Amino acid sequence: MDWKRAGKYVSQRRGGFIIEIFKKTKWKKTKKKEKKRKEKRNEKKKKKKKKKKKKKKKKKKRRSRKDRE
């Protein structure tokens, strides 16, 4: 593939690196799709329930021999 003819945009997406080279007309369409994908991802993150934190149990302090006697 001739790099110069393909247009100079190279996208690196999540999920490993998918490197895409494409012409300028295609670039606009993919940009819109990327935007939609980001919006959906953000909505999913908001919908996810937050996990409750577990309370740590306090350890009983060991009494020294002097205290026991």
Automatic annotation (TrEMBL):
Chain residue ranges for the region called Disordered: 25-69
Protein name (record): Uncharacterized protein
Organism whose genome encodes this protein: Portunus trituberculatus (Swimming crab)
